[in-house]
């Protein structure tokens, strides 16, 4: 089967990792896979037989698009989408592909006039907050129109039941199918054995780990506050990631006198090594589309405590794991969970993870 995956870029994000995982696994199974990107950024390792095609759209046109977006917001995509679709048709023979998957809202907006019988839109995050709460009424209408356009294609894929519910309740889109993100569980466990960063992991002692972009969504501020109250139980807090909240979070750490206990380690291509050695992993997010890091941490046999945010965590943390979900707004409850936590009593079952294996996810994509 010939598959085309469309994404803005392959920088180090969760949705990008999903695209790469799908491409690699499909290729391993003998399928002909192409990834089409509009921005020339690739930060993941791809199977040598995966074809990457970069948009031929000129830098001059991209600069014009950027200026239009800064002035008109997403309304600009109504015009520039024509340029992107034209370039795509110039770069690739679309009628040769059995299935085309468009990942991300920005790619959806760029290729909104592409929808045809073999094109699927893949949603990695909730759209109601992003679209309905937009103060600009024209942009709101434009965004909702793009969502409706996506339903004209072959179908819609959501990475969680929560996102599917969101689309149905807020936009009346009822033809969405849920396919969980793919995870190569064996690869994750193998990578967890490798210390790529040559870090002296023992120096951190018993540590809490958080992996994610340093930004409002991930809410590391709450985790730092909770750590202050349990710093007699844990030696360190490790934050893996970069982002716009870096300076403010470091100021918060200083205000609590935790400069020697909280470590900002930046981006790493192999967070699994840190997960394997962590005492507990905490996801403090205000919202998610799925929560890839939860599955990855559990695959490394790392206990997890997570906010019960929309969407994903309560679909991943099931059975006995659901006890370790806390109210997203309640820092005190997170503190109590950390205080109560005992690794000897935490149980992770393979049955909790098998539904996220890449074999199952890819099978569902191909049979969709």
UniProtKB/TrEMBL annotation:
SUPFAM superfamilies: UDP-Glycosyltransferase/glycogen phosphorylase (SSF53756). Residues 206-341 form the Glycosyl transferase family domain. GO terms for molecular function: glycosyltransferase activity. Keywords: Glycosyltransferase, Transferase. Its EC number is 2.4.1.291. Residues 13-186 form the Glycosyltransferase subfamily 4-like N-terminal domain. InterPro entries: Glyco_trans_1, Glyco_trans_4-like_N. It is an enzyme of class 2 (transferase). GO terms for biological process: carbohydrate derivative metabolic process. This is N-acetylgalactosamine-N, N'-diacetylbacillosaminyl-diphospho-undecaprenol 4-alpha-N-acetylgalactosaminyltransferase. It comes from Vibrio parahaemolyticus.
């Amino acid at each position: 089967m010939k598959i085309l995956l469309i994404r803005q870029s392959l920088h180090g994000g969760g949705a990008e990792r999903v695209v790469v995982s799908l491409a690699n696994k499909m290729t391993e199974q003998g399928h002909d896979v192409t990834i089409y990107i509009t921005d020339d950024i690739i930060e993941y390792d791809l199977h040598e037989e995966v074809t990457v095609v970069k948009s031929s759209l000129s830098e001059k046109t991209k600069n014009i698009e950027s200026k239009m977006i800064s002035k008109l917001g997403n309304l600009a995509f109504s015009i520039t989408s024509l340029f992107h679709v034209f370039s795509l048709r110039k770069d690739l023979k679309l009628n040769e592909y059995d299935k085309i998957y468009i990942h991300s809202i920005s790619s959806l907006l760029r290729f909104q006039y592409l929808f045809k019988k073999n094109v699927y839109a893949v949603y990695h995050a909730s759209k109601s907050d992003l679209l309905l709460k937009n103060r600009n009424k024209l942009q709101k209408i434009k965004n909702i129109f793009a969502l409706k356009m996506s339903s004209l294609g072959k179908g819609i894929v959501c990475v969680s039941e929560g996102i599917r519910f969101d689309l149905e309740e807020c936009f009346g889109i009822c033809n969405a199918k849920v396919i969980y993100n793919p995870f190569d569980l064996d690869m994750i466990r193998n990578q967890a054995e490798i210390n790529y960063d040559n870090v002296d992991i023992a120096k951190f002692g018993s540590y809490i780990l958080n992996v994610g972009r340093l930004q409002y969504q991930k809410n590391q501020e709450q985790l730092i506050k909770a750590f202050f109250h349990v710093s007699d139980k844990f030696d360190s807090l490790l934050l893996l990631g970069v982002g716009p909240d870096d300076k403010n979070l470091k100021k918060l750490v200083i205000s609590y006198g935790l400069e020697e206990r909280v470590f900002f380690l930046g981006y790493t291509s192999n967070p699994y090594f840190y997960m394997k050695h962590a005492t507990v992993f905490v996801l403090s997010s205000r919202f998610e589309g799925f929560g890839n890091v939860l599955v990855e941490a559990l695959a490394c046999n790392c206990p997890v405590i997570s906010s019960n945010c929309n969407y994903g965590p309560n679909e991943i943390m099931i059975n006995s794991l659901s006890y370790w979900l806390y109210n997203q707004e309640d820092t005190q409850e997170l503190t109590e969970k950390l205080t109560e936590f005992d690794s000897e009593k935490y149980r992770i079952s393979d049955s909790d993870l098998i539904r996220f294996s890449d074999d199952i996810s890819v099978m569902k994509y191909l049979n969709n």
